Amino acid sequence: MHPARTPLAADVDFQALAHRYEVSGGDIRIAVLKAALAAAAEHRPDSAKRIHRHHFEASIEEVIAGKRVMGQSLFEGSPLLASAEGEPRWARDDVCVGAHRGPSG
Predict the structure, then answer these.
(1) Which of helix, strand or coil describes residue 103?
(2) What value does the CA radius of gyration of the chain take, rounded to a whole number of Å?
(3) pLDDT tens for residues 49-99?
(4) Using one digit for the tens of pLDDT, what is the confidence trace for 25-54?
(5) Angle between helices 25-40 and 53-70 (to 10 degrees)
(6) Bridge partners (DSSP) listed for residue 81
(7) Integer CA distances (angstroms), 92 to 3, 48, 54, in order
(8) Which H or E element spans position 89?
């Protein structure tokens, strides 16, 4: 999205957003696309649609929340590891997820 050709509302301040949110370029890209989609989905004539600060803020908060969820473990203390053969396994040897152990297990 190119800011010079994007219908931005006057309340958008990229510098303020950059100071408020410390995120990677990929996260920014996702948030910008989400903000544009949110603005485009509003019920008004296309010529009146603008991306507002609240679109950017809601989108980046959504991206940050998603990263927080993806970083959680369902089984605290048992991170998923890869075996030497590349098969997924849990840190505890007695638990195996996603791999068939053969006739004995």
Answers:
(1) coil
(2) 21
(3) 999 999 999 999 999 998 888 776 665 555 555 555 655 555 544 444 444
(4) 999 999 999 999 999 999 999 889 999 999
(5) 130
(6) 89
(7) 50, 57, 45
(8) strand 88-90
Architecture of domain 3-70: Orthogonal Bundle (1.10)
| DSSP 8-state code for residue 91 | S
Residue type, 79: P
Q: Which residue has the tokens 């903000």?
A: 35
Tokens 């696309």 sit on residue: 33
For residue 80, the Cα-to-chain-centroid distance in whole angstroms is 21
**∠64-16-65 over CA atoms, to 5°?**
10
Could you list the beta-strand ranges (E) of the chain.
80-82, 88-90
Every domain range in the chain assigned CATH 1.10.8.60: 3-70
Q: Amino acid identity, residue 40? A: A
Q: How far apart are CA 90 and CA 82, in angstroms?
A: 8
